[in-house]
Write a structure and sequence with these properties.
By secondary structure, this protein is an all-beta fold. Helix content is 2%, strand content 45%.
Length: 577
């Protein structure tokens, strides 16, 4: 059975859909995920460049404080500064089209918000975009050199390059320095290097002296020594974004899995790159649901078996913070995602058991950069194999917080709030284990239907299309419980593990450990296939802290566990070779 891998400390692959330093910049087509005047979007280091009909919009973030918070685990939410400026063509035929070329292997998907008309799947990416005859006889060619966004003005023989012009709006200042064009913003500087201009004569490149001509915020080009107008001319500036005070750490890894062919899938938090709503400087607290569209979305990606390219990448979320805890792939290479959300407009699909966000009380997981002012619900989503279509997505929860482990004694490690797991049974139906504070969590055919009164573990099975809860149950007693991992044996029996603080947690008679040994113990439970009976249950711990984070079953139905303890060195050593 394919399993998810929970990866906070050892993220197996870099989620590179936002990091231009990890992969060459890609020109992503607009299929409705951005406003209609946007032609292509290009991910940058902590921002986006949008190619538009009338010019470009550059959206920059300063994410250094978010990175510092992740490192320090501070519980103070930092303000994240941003700046948006525009480059407007002057005197150009802005109705001219844009022509992409060099289609890349990677495509992008956007499932953000509850308006399906704004969802976009299969957005192709390209290595080149050309705009022809913007000025009479002058084209623009956008591309990259493997690291940086680049563009050339291509001037046909006899055309006049003095017509080329653009205005830079909403920057703090624009000036020239040693031949460079410097665009100063509230989050640092962007440079356009001294323009390299040249002509080709009999296949030989002939340099042409070229300088920026700046008047206020209007930019053009001059040629102090002239050039041969009978030959085409190329003007080649180079954008450098590495000088602004952003961060490469604008996404963080949570989970990974694989399919039967060895392709690798990753899930993490992506600090959103929606089209910016404002110009100039602004601040985003990344609180999720604060209305600025720049909170945390889920970022999901598929990589080829060699790890040399990304097959696809998708965003999933609403206007609040959304985080993936666990992912798994079925035999048809369809991705299932389990996570938590603070979004009241998560992109749920029709006919699901949880069409509406319920939420709970405010929760701010320490040091994770996330915030949930209206509480949390569990979310489960199901994509098609190409991830271009959202086959199903639903909320799950009650009036308390669901999907987050915030028990002070069971939240032991950084980001333990975002544990739990999604697995698949032999028929491809998703099994989900998580934690809840809801006394009205939807119970179906439960052997334990009464809320324990604190944080409870909860486990459920859904239909593959996510339109039905096949069964669900609490795993709880009077103290706190956490649900971390779930799997199934060949007979359809369900195995669950997690942590408990309850002395009267329902361990069965004759179990390996019938009584709670310490303040926090791990637990292992075996449930009947229809979840109407607890077949076996045992504590697993010592007088010191212990919890169990992963469970697996082999073909002989032996149980394998992975956990953490503060017990003495030899306490859990048994049958040592």
């Amino acid at each position: 059975m394919l399993k998810t891998v929970w990866t906070w400390f050892f993220f197996l692959v870099a989620t590179a859909y936002l990091a231009a330093a990890a992969t060459p910049p890609a020109y992503i087509e607009n299929k409705g995920q951005w406003p209609a005047h946007v032609l292509f979007g290009v991910p940058l280091e902590g921002g986006m460049l949008f190619i538009e009909q009338s010019g470009t919009t550059t959206h920059l973030f300063d994410l250094s404080e978010v990175s510092a918070r992740h490192a320090s685990r501070s519980d103070k939410a930092p303000a994240v500064r941003g700046h948006v400026y525009h480059t407007r063509f002057t005197g150009a035929d802005t109705g001219s089209g844009a022509y992409p070329a060099g289609q890349e292997k990677t495509y992008f998907n956007y499932f953000i918000g509850d308006d399906p008309s704004r969802w976009a799947g299969g957005c192709r990416s390209f290595g080149h975009v050309r705009r022809n005859n913007l000025w009479s006889g002058v084209d623009i060619h956008y591309y990259h050199n493997g690291f940086f966004v680049k563009y050339d003005f291509e001037v046909k023989s006899g055309a006049d390059p003095s017509h080329i012009g653009f205005e830079i709006d909403a920057a703090d200042t624009v000036f020239t320095d040693n031949g460079r064009l410097v665009i100063k913003t509230s989050v640092g500087e962007v440079w356009e290097q001294s323009p390299l201009a040249y002509q080709l004569r009999d296949g030989v490149r002939i340099p042409v002296a070229c300088e920026y001509r700046l008047s206020g915020n209007h930019v053009g080009f001059s040629f102090p020594r002239g050039y041969d107008r009978a030959l085409p001319l190329v003007i080649d500036p180079e954008l450098v974004f590495s000088t602004y005070s952003g961060s490469f750490s604008d996404n963080f890894g949570y989970t990974a899995t694989y399919d039967n062919d060895g392709y690798l899938y990753s899930g993490g938090s992506a600090f959103g790159n929606q089209y910016p709503p404002t110009s100039g400087a602004y601040q985003s607290t990344h609180n999720g649901g604060d209305g600025n569209g720049d909170g945390i979305d889920m970022g999901l990606s598929k990589y080829d078996i060699s790890g040399t390219f990304m097959v696809w990448s998708t965003y999933l979320g609403g206007q609040g913070d959304d985080l993936p805890h666990s992912v798994v792939v079925n035999d048809a290479d369809e991705l299932f995602v389990y996570g938590c959300t603070g979004s009241n407009n998560f992109p749920v699909t029709a006919g699901v058991p949880g069409p509406f966000f319920i939420g709970g009380s405010e929760v701010n997981p320490t040091g994770t950069g996330s915030s949930f002012p209206e509480g949390t619900d569990i979310v489960v989503a199901h994509f098609n194999a190409s991830c271009t279509d959202l086959l199903g997505a639903t909320y799950l929860g009650g009036t308390g917080n669901d999907g987050v482990n915030t028990s002070s004694l069971l939240k032991r490690n950084y980001a333990d709030e975002f544990r739990g797991e999604i697995s698949l049974d032999v028929a491809g139906n998703p099994l989900v284990v998580s934690s809840t504070y809801s006394d009205d969590f939807p119970m179906v055919n439960a052997f334990q239907s009464v809320y324990g009164g604190a944080q409870d573990a909860v486990v459920m099975k859904l239909s593959a299309d996510l339109t039905e809860i096949l069964w669900s149950t609490y795993l709880c007693s009077a103290g706190d419980e956490s649900g971390f991992s779930v799997t199934e044996n060949s007979a359809g029996e369900i195995y669950v593990c997690g942590g408990t603080l309850s002395q009267n947690f329902p361990a069965t008679e004759g179990a390996y450990q019938e009584l709670l040994a310490g303040g926090a113990d791990g637990f292992i439970a075996r449930l009947s296939p229809e979840c109407d009976d607890m077949l076996d249950c045992t504590f697993y711990g010592s007088t010191a802290f212990a919890q169990l984070y992963f469970i697996e079953i082999d073909e002989q139905v032996n149980v394998y566990l992975y956990g953490q303890t503060n017990a003495p060195d030899d306490f859990f050593i048994l049958n040592e070779a």
